[in-house]
Amino acid sequence: MKLSIIIPTYNEEEYLPNLLKSIESQKFKDYEVIVADANSCDSTVRIAKNYGCTVVQGGMPGVGRNNGAKIAKGEILLFLDSDLELTQSYLIEMIEEFEANELDIGITQINPISEKKRDKILHDLANWFMIAFEKIKPHGAGCYGIICKKELHEKYSGFNEKLTFGEDTDYIERIAKNNKFKVLRNPIINVSTRRLEEEGLGKLAMQYGKSTFNDLRGIRTSAEELEYEFDHFPKDPLEKEDLLAKIKKISDNHSIVKSEDLKYIDNKKLDSKKLDDKNLDNKKLELKITNNKLLNIENQKIKIFYSVCGEGMGHAVRSGVILEELTKKENKEKYDIYIFSSDRSYRYLKNKFDNVYEIGGFNTVYENNEVKNKRTLLNAIKATPNNLKENYGILFKKAREVKPNIIISDFENYSSILSKLINVPLISLDNINIITQTFIDYPPHHRQDMLKAKSIIRSYIMRPKRYIITSYFFPKIKNPDKATIYPPVIRNKIRNLEISYGEYVFVYQTSNSNKELIRILKKFNEKFIVYGFNKEGIEGNLTFRKFNEDKIYEDMSNAKAVITNGGFTLISEAIYLKKPIYSIPAIGNFEQLLNGFYVDKLGYGEMHEKINVSTLENFLNNLNKYQKNLYNVKNSDNSGIIKELKKSIEIFSKKY
């Protein structure tokens, strides 16, 4: 026999008939159906027998599947949950793709039995996630059609019966580790949304989010931890309250700290001096450093993975300054540093440092100074599976080879994923997390853009141990124990420049798509030196230049003003050089909008969402006012942020 279909059940009289009908209607007939029932008290067993199924003693969740597999006659096993429905030709498509790819184990994609758009999006995301991670961390979004050779099921002792949740993912991971696995692309299985309706999106997202996060870290999560239940009966509230009362009684009788002791501790007045926030932070940091020294971390070289976003040049420039400090001669005996980046950032850092590795990354798509979200997303989705595969081969394998103690990310998301996969602490050092970690001001009509930016940033950089933020504006921090702000990181070449005000305006653009800017600049009786359009030459009053690190410093230091988007690094350097700023943020880029907004708010120049002749003319007529405000800004060095980073490395580095 080719195929044995195994279905664990418990009180499934409502859903099982639909699944069995969908199996019965398949053109492929070389199969048997085994129902492993966990003592249902409804008509589940009778229904199974009426459809000609073999019924065996079950148990939830892995026991039933294993019991079914023990009597299976098929060379291939297909494990299904009872609330599924097979799509037309599912079995034929599944067998054909499984054998054509010479697979050992696989899983099928899912489609909700629902008309709700929300449900469709959620299941599409689950499919995308499974495919994206199939080469890195084989994963199953529930037991929705797991296909496995029977001989391998037996070799690996089937499902782990000790697990009460995530036994399907554990099963896939163990077998796929040394055998061929794939998310099948052709067969699709229909999935009930009953648990989504019963539990609600919030609770279900928490359950599966926590479980998946732990799976990526190699940790299994129990059903009890997630408050996950396998039956679908309504609960008796009186019975539940009685049970909770019993648990509380047991807990009170066996608690190390009695409730009255807790009350005493809570009410006791502490007669000690109140420390200010900075002193308290320092005490905490000193204590953690002392603890790490007791673990002999100071006697080892700390291995650092430093990963840098490849979008634009700002992340690379800032990281270059930080890395110059960390790789100085006096730090050679302290740190081994491995640098990862993409695109222009990779090339920039490769020319400056050793141990620089190229990884894949995302780039924002711009058109006429506007972010094209759909094209950016489509490009990201297309690139993600390949990036994950390639970056796994670089980041993950390098991590297994050298065992990093700490990962530092300048808004590079694959290092954030790596941190969770290998359970190595993450430090975030960037400017963009000022959006997530502080109470920022922003134009009220951009609230939706702010919320969208927050969600994207949080998905890029996931729960680091420390946020080190660099900024030229200083809003209130939400949690000072978690985050801190320092002035912008400025290159020494910028610091050493002599400031003068020539007869031209310096122009820098993040992308070369802002054609409207060029059209307007040509209307002025002013000279403009323009960077960012990737060309050389003179067009009337415009001089175009390609990026050259030495030349761009000279042009910027002698300019009378700066026109730019909202890029953080260039604005920071313009402020340091006391150059008035005319900011035109890329439409749809909230970070640039925020940077420009604070330029305007602090009186360092003007921010306009669209360029036009009158606003630019007004800006050029008020340069003296902005220069005066800029001269009140006190320039600072990079020593504070370097000290903070070194301290955080000491505190959070993992000991093997």
Keywords:
Spore Coat Polysaccharide Biosynthesis Protein SpsA, Chain A; alpha/beta; single chain; about 650 residues; about 45% helix; 27 helices; 3 domains
What do you see in this structure?
This protein is of the alpha/beta class and 656 residues long. The protein folds into three domains: 3-194, Alpha-Beta Complex (Spore Coat Polysaccharide Biosynthesis Protein SpsA, Chain A), CATH 3.90.550.10; 284-489 and 644-651, Rossmann fold (3-Layer(aba) Sandwich); 497-630, 3-Layer(aba) Sandwich (Rossmann fold). 44% of the residues lie in helices and 18% in strands. The protein has 27 helices and 24 strands. Strands 3-2-1-4-7-6-8-5 form an eight-stranded mixed β-sheet, sandwiched between helices. The chain has a seven-stranded parallel β-sheet with strand order 11-10-9-14-15-16-17, sandwiched between helices. It has a seven-stranded mixed β-sheet with strand order 20-21-19-18-22-23-24, sandwiched between helices. Strand 18, helix 21 (515-521) and strand 19 (527-531) form a beta-alpha-beta unit. Helix 13 crosses helix 27 and helix 14 packs parallel to helix 15 (343-350). The radius of gyration is 30 Å and the shape is elongated. It starts with a strand and ends with a helix. GO terms for molecular function: glycosyltransferase activity. It comes from Methanobrevibacter arboriphilus JCM 13429 = DSM 1125. Pfam families: Glyco_trans_1_3, Glycos_transf_2. This is Glycosyltransferase, family 2.
